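How a chain folds remains the central question behind the approach discussed here. No coordinates are needed to read the tokens, only the vocabulary itself. For completeness, the protein is quoted in full, as a sequence line and a line of structure tokens:
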Amino acid sequence: MAAEVLAAAGCAVTLADAMPSVGRKFLMAGKSGLNLTKDGPLDDFIAAYGPLPKVMVDALTAFGPAQVIDWAQGLDQPVFTGSSGRVFPLAMKASPLLRAWLIRLGAAGVQVRTRWRWIGWDAAAAVFDTPDGRQGVAADITILALGGASWARLGSDGAWAALLGEVVTPFAPANMGFSVGWSPHMAKYFGRPVKGCALIAGTQRERGEFVISARGIEGGGVYSVSRAVREGAPLHLDLLPEWSLSEVAARLARPRGKATLANHLRKVLRIDPLRLALFHEWARPFAGDLAAILKHLPVRHDGPRPLDEAISTAGGVKFGALDGGLMLQDRPGVFCAGEMLDWEAPTGGYLITACLASGAAAARAALVMPPGQGMRK
């Protein structure tokens, strides 16, 4: 997006990518349906990120969901909005959109260089390892969009952080699953979705499905509370979110007769086998108010899954090291954008939208940079 804005303004632009082809994480995002953004009031969209610095709020205000939709449709990729407000291309894949975008960038004169890995600076020049050996490029404007630190095999390995040093907040996983050491009886449920629950992390309460696997729990419902849990909030499940605590207690008070506890729960609460299995897994040893436990079941986990398994990352270049146009204060003419910045997005199109918005914002700021401030000038 930064390259597109610069090229449209008449700049000669080189787009360097460390991988053999561009946009690999973008393509991965489209494997299960490319969620570009989320439609709805802009204020609600921005609020979903949690606290954001002004420069990111300004970027999203200038290039938010409406602009993302226009951009995709301008590339002849019609979109539709799902029942939850999430916006997808009709093709549901990233590859047609990326192909159309690269064609448009090429027509605007953007030179794409693949297998070019940025390795630092030599005075004013950015230095790259390339198939033809080490290359130095001196430019008036440099925009770094180096990604986070998850999905290293797609190019987002975070290795660049060592080159920028103290201006980088250490990475942490975002939108990730959590490890669970299951007992053997849970193995038959691996790969199954858990439905009809609410996830509670501190004061946050979210409805959403998640999946149990041999490694633990993952999926949209878990991702929605992952930030709070990573920051120390205990995680609980409400196994019966449609009913109040008093309603659950009243049903449990019905005569049990000779039925086992499991059969009683199935009969009076209509609880499915998977939720019942989670109750047995995490409520043992059983003690206390049964209704309260069903409504607030503690999830015993061993912390976040490894960073490289996360959908995205928190941490990155500190906003305090940047000016109001996303330029590094100690390196004039060098801007940062995208997931390499120290912000965090929930799932639902927020990551892609803010990456596009910050790329456009960095390019716009670079175009009005005072003469003589850039590295070469």
Notes: The radius of gyration is 24 Å. The first helix runs from residue 2 to 8. DSSP finds 13 helices and 20 strands in the chain. The first strand starts at residue 14 and ends at 17.
